């Protein structure tokens, strides 16, 4: 899949309608997509945990 298809799938599968990836213009394999998706999902979850912890610490 190309960059545009990869972005569309990430938006759809992770429910991020306005997500714009900063990735190279080339073809990507399904395994590369799955790795990117897993990493992005982990980053989002970590951001949410950090945000909640920071909000709780600040009262």
UniProtKB/TrEMBL annotation:
Residues 30-57 form a coiled coil. The keyword Coiled coil applies. Keywords: Coiled coil. This is Uncharacterized protein. It comes from Lactococcus taiwanensis.
């Amino acid at each position: 899949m190309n960059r545009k298809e990869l972005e569309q799938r990430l938006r759809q599968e992770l429910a991020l309608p306005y997500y714009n990836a900063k990735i190279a213009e080339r073809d990507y394999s399904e395994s590369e997509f799955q790795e990117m998706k897993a990493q992005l999902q982990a980053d989002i979850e970590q951001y949410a945990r950090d945000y909640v912890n920071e909000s709780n610490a600040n009262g």
